[in-house]
Design a protein that fits this description.
The chain has about 230 residues and is of the alpha/beta class. It has 7 helices and 9 strands; from the N terminus they run βαβααβαβαβαβαβββ. The structure holds NADP nicotinamide-adenine-dinucleotide phosphate (NAP).
Length: about 230
């Protein structure tokens, strides 16, 4: 495969929402799910987020457990997986946690919409050994090319942590192998609250088929793991 193995992981409510209508990154995971997510991160070569999650929430995306980080180091890896951002206009705030927390490798895919000044600051002296920026000369990042680049950078296992628009674009392009979701026992409702996958959506005939490969009840929540039947 000329791309990494790609899996999406989300925490969602029983009505499929991954945040409330307020879009402030509402807490959905249980403690046990947070530990599962930490393990998934620790087992991945890179963790990816889309532009809105990246710029609005500025996630750290680091491995929280000292033990899991130590195990990575014992395997000859960096303590944290690389962080990957897909963002049309990479206007990061000056002390972005995404870029600085964890001190590890950061890969940013962006477009001509990112200003020259911002590109220069991302490629500045103090970041140049850690931050790689790929500029696609188009309106949106070409996700197929992005995946090839990630593979060339040695990323073989990629965890995607949202949001809804990036999830849709990756699935639409056949670039997702598995989807896992912790379904929390709560309902958010709200037409404007994001679901696991948004974008323009599919007609019924184009719906992406899934195969259930794992299901577990965790108290009143459920862990679901699907294989995508039509990935490229
Ligand atoms: N519960 C969970 O597990 C979880 C996890 C992550 C996020 N979330 C929630 O998801 C919500 C955010 O989702 P979202 O759909 O609004 O945003 P998103 O998927 O995080 O980011 C979408 C943005 O990424 C950029 N993007 C996507 N594909 C691109 C491409 N091919 N090329 C260039 N840029 C691309 C676009 O920026 P431009 O519009 O600038 O082009 C797009 O608007 C938040 O409420 C967050 O809390 C929940």
């Amino acid at each position: 495969m000329n791309r990494p193995f790609v899996f999406i992981n989300v925490a969602m409510t029983a009505d499929g929402k991954i945040d409330t209508f307020a879009r402030k990154g509402a807490a959905i995971s249980s403690q046990r799910d947070k530990e599962r997510v930490d393990k998934l991160r620790a087992e991945s070569d890179a963790v990816m987020v889309g532009g809105r999650t990246l710029l609005d929430e500025d996630p750290k995306l680091t491995v929280k457990s000292d033990e899991l980080r130590a195990k990575r180091v014992a395997r000859g890896l960096a303590p944290n997986p690389a962080k990957v951002g897909v963002v049309s206009n990479a206007e990061f705030k000056s002390h972005s946690k995404f870029i600085y927390e964890g001190g590890g490798r950061v890969v940013i895919f962006t477009t001509y919409r990112t200003s020259k000044d911002q590109l220069a600051s991302l490629r500045s002296h103090d970041l140049k050994d850690r931050v790689e920026v790929f500029v696609h000369e188009s309106e949106r990042v070409d996700l197929g090319i992005m995946m090839q680049t990630l593979k060339e950078l040695g990323i073989n296992r990629l965890m995607v942590e949202g949001g809804a628009t990036l999830n849709f674009e990756l699935i639409r392009h056949g670039l997702v192998d598995e989807v896992s979701a912790y379904v929390a026992p709560m309902i958010f409702g709200g037409e404007k609250a994001p679901t696991m996958v948004s974008g323009s959506g599919f007609e019924r005939g184009e719906a992406v088929p899934l195969k259930l490969i794992r299901v577990e009840q965790w108290d009143d929540g459920v862990l679901l793991n699907y294989k995508v039947e039509r990935s490229l």
